[in-house]
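Design a sequence for this backbone.
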């Protein structure tokens, strides 16, 4: 990609951020995004295959440091405690909930966006870069090999439960600064790690 192409892509990401902040995902049209970026609407499709890809790229690029940290989670196996590492990851990921949840709801409500995401994921296949669910599952599998996690645990299922709890916490009414309470997130991780047995 040329410098001009990178600059245009960056303008599209920033324009998407602005339009979504003002009107939400459900009402963020490609026309409005292009207008905010100062480009023709067709320019969007030279950089992104569809609107869903533009939305996800905006979230991921806006939170690149969190995504990068979480993808290195498996390398932390054996360091600290399992509970502490998962709580750290969960608190970092919880900060994304105010962006991810509205996008997921918009995709669920819009058949076109849902179809775009299914097509993009099918086209990417095994080349799809690992995201938080895969990173958390890989971390749990690494801890399992070290004997720090039960041998009968399904790492993928445990990752889904943990991230599902984050999704639920993010959907609750916000307090304070608007994001999920870090203490509440750590408490949820503790409950998942320790269970409810006496």
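Sequence:
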């Amino acid at each position: 990609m040329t410098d001009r192409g990178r600059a245009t892509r960056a303008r599209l990401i920033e324009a998407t951020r602005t339009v979504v902040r003002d009107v939400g995902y459900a009402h963020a049209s490609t026309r409005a995004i292009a207008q905010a970026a100062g480009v023709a609407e067709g320019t969007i499709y030279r950089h992104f295959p569809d609107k869903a890809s533009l939305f996800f790229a905006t979230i991921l690029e806006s939170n690149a440091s969190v995504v990068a940290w979480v993808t290195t989670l498996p390398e932390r196996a054996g360091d600290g405690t399992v509970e502490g590492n998962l709580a750290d990851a969960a608190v970092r990921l919880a900060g994304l909930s105010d962006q991810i949840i509205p996008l997921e709801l918009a995709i669920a409500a819009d058949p076109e966006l849902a179809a775009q995401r299914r097509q993009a994921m099918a086209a990417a296949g095994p080349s799809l870069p690992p995201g938080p669910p895969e990173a958390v599952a890989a971390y749990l599998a690494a801890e399992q090999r070290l004997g720090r996690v039960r041998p009968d645990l399904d790492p993928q299922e445990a990752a889904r439960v943990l991230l599902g709890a984050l999704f639920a916490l993010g959907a609750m009414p916000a307090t304070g600064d608007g994001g999920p309470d870090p203490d509440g997130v750590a408490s949820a991780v503790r409950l998942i790690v320790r269970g409810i047995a006496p």
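The chain has a mean pLDDT of 83.
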